[in-house]
């Protein structure tokens, strides 16, 4: 009965989506390069959400790609860098995040195609402080955009190794593919 699945790689998602039932909701959870946006939006009609919007360029390309295929809505999460690690993507909390949140939340064309639903982070392994940082970033965005209740935006945080702590810290969305399907074999990449 599971109908929400995530995928890290745009090309793999484009290949997998047609093989699954059409009522599956796909969530793209990997690093999204701007050159992969059009093929992803066009190739996965049941793409429910992109969890890794981290630049204005990616946000603009997503909005434009949705418009081009006449998609009325795509849920988006802004990825926030809570670790400071060079290997992690994400926008910095503060002015950079607020500016991107304004854009993604805009009702102007083409951004009206994007449905800003939350924030996402991938913290450093074992750093549950990342969860508190994301909660603080959400509070800042909610205040800045005048969204009212703090839980107006979801938190996408926690993976197979720390999802229980993430839930304790308020996560609405967790990524547990390794727990369900086993570790990915990267030797085939």
TrEMBL record:
InterPro entries: PLP-binding_barrel, PyrdxlP_homeostasis. It comes from Lotharella globosa. This is Alanine racemase N-terminal domain-containing protein. Keywords: Pyridoxal phosphate. PROSITE patterns: UPF0001 (PS01211). GO terms for molecular function: pyridoxal phosphate binding.
């Amino acid at each position: 009965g599971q109908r929400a699945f995530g995928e890290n790689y745009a090309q793999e998602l484009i290949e997998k989506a047609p093989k699954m039932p059409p009522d599956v909701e796909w969530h793209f959870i990997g690093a999204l390069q701007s050159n992969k946006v059009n093929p992803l939006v066009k190739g996965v009609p049941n793409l429910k959400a992109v969890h890794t919007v981290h630049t204005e360029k990616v946000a603009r390309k997503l909005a434009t790609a949705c418009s081009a295929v006449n998609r009325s809505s795509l849920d988006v999460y802004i990825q926030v860098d809570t670790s400071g690690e060079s290997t992690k993507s994400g926008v910095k909390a503060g002015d950079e995040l607020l500016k991107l949140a304004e854009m993604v939340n805009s009702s102007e064309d083409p951004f009206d195609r994007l449905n800003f639903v939350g924030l996402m982070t991938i913290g450093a392994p074992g750093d549950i402080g990342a969860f508190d940082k994301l909660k603080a970033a959400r509070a800042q965005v909610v205040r800045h955009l005048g969204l009212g209740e703090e839980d107006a935006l979801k938190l996408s945080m926690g993976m197979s190794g720390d999802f229980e702590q993430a839930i304790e810290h308020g996560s609405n969305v967790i990524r547990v593919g390794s727990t369900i399907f086993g570790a990915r074999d990267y030797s085939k990449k």
